[in-house]
User: Fold these one by one.
Assistant:
Number 1:
Amino acid sequence: MTITDTPVDWHTRAKQLVFRTHAFIDGQATPSADGQTRATVNPATGQELAQIADCDERDVDRAVAAARRAFEDGRWSRRSPAERKVVLQRWAALILEHADELALLDSLDAGKLITDTTTGDVPGSAAIVRWYAEAIDKVYGEIAPTGPDALALVTRVPLGVVGAVVPWNFPLEMAIWKLAPALATGNSVVLKPAEESPLSALRVAELAVEAGLPDGVLNVVPGDGPVAGRALGLHQDVDVLTFTGSTAVGKLFLGYAAESNMKQVWLECGGKSANLVFADTADLDAAAEGVCAGIFSNQGQVCSANSRLVVQRSIKDELLDKVVERARGIVLGDPLDPASTMGPLVSDQQASRVLELLADGARTSRTLIGGGRAPGTPSPCFLQPTIFDDVPRDARIAQEEIFGPVLAVFGFDDEREALAIADDTAYGLAASVWSDSVARTHRVADRLHAGTVSINTVDMLDVLTPFGGFGQSGFGRDLSLHALDKFTGLKTTWYHHG
Ligand code: NAD
């Protein structure tokens, strides 16, 4: 065995980690104003990892003031895009240099598989930072087609102080989805990570300063949603609020903006995405693989999880046999063990929420596999992969986002019925379609009410394309050059030559 083949001892590495426990304000690790802390817990063991600053309104005020000072004096906002590019590229390189550390922080904090954080979350985050770094000095303004006696320039200007409030399911990546385009365009940011998963955000902010980001441009205020998150939403000096999280909390941010300074609000919220499998799919094994990946990845805690399988009746039994067989093969266990293929949910509270919906499923539908806590696992956060068949369209498990490893199955006879089932929720984030007919996939994709439709695969997303939804999945778009629209305003400068 060569040295590079030596398996990493993640438990030993975890013991060597030094957690950042203070807020990060104006380039400094800063205790909360009143010294309050809250525990962050490893859901795989139930053990406390660290006590983290529990920020309140005063801390948010300090962070916003630092961000405002930085924005107004131009230490970042007035640097050329090419200069910002260099700093962001260094930041991307530092993220990769500290890849194992950042991956471990997310795995410990949120119960995510180390095989996912090392191969997905962390390199994906670095790639997004690098992509926006490389893009930002290639974005041009416009010259309007005036007559010869005038020159009208249309430029994109940064908006000022951005508040970013993010969830725990991809702690580093969700933060980076906001930070990379917001910083590339010259804004200052105050980031509030989720209560459950503040560790990677605090560390990556420190790395940004090490890369050359001036103090005060990026601030992190860990804290309670209804306290620190609300304070950011209501702040009179925050210009834009970008949010990823539940639909219920997203709606609150619209209210906060209305009650305060009419800040722009961008919402990326929940989903109940459908996976449609038609009988003319030749490779049902690939479809079964996709169905499982679509709902069981990250323990189902994915906003665009394909939580509803909508399958043509003539192939339903055959497909379900394959899906159930794969679900039985899932290895529930320690997220730091590379042999595990599913870890715990993020918290006991989240597991209890999912268990409540499992009880509803058991009452209204037919359980094919799973249905409760996983026996013999080291914490109550481990739930069995669960599949319900014959789900009534109005059941809670058919309509509500579960955010756990729970698949609801529906049969259909024709395309019209498939579309009616797929579009029968308040959401519109994503959908997948399996069929070997190009005409059908094109027709169905066109009709589906979803921000992203994946054909003969599931849940595709990439920095190259916008990600976001319709309906109560929100209206913001993360990723791609379109994300720059959220963090810049169009400014017209009209020269009159009289
Ligand atoms: P959540 O809405 O409970 O929390 C998200 C963030 O909002 C957290 O930082 C939280 O502290 C904060 N918050 C909570 N209550 C608040 C309040 N009263 N005022 C201000 N801020 C508050 O969501 P969650 O449980 O952390 O994450 C899961 C949700 O995120 C799911 O609904 C999922 O679909 C959604 N999500 C969406 C996307 C997307 O891009 N559409 C991506 C990932 C997750």
Number 2:
Amino acid sequence: MEQTFVMIKPDGVRKNLAGECIRRYEARGLRLHKMRLDTLTAEIAQEHYGEHADKPFFGELVKHVTSGPVVLMILEGEGAVAAVRKTNGATNPLDSEPGSIRGDFGLEITQNIVHGSDSVANAQREIGIFFKT
Ligand code: IDP
Ligand code: MG
């Protein structure tokens, strides 16, 4: 069964939206495989977002995702990678459809509540970073 990696970012946890996000994934038919609350080190955040290392927003992104606890999870289901991306909505909440998590709860691109892997290969890479056992 396809797996994907999801992180509820610190703004999502701070706004008490973790349960709402998980509810939406589960309602869609995705199954929780692993989950924990954790606070990321800068090193782990930099590794996770390595593809963006040369972008102007990289420093702000790392600062944000290390600013408080996050919920880390592996979700399973048919087409799980694409299903989570659709449920999350477009990267910039101003472009996200109402009905998506980002479209319903956010306005800011850095504080856009959730992360979902963008491909099966990246899901496996990210699962390897956050769930080593
Ligand atoms: P994604 O989270 O939808 O996969 P990515 O392009 O992989 O989007 O970017 C990773 C994260 O970096 C985004 O979720 C967002 O928080 C932040 N980000 C992306 N583009 C920008 C930007 O242009 N300015 C500020 N932050 C950005
Ligand atoms: Mg991405």
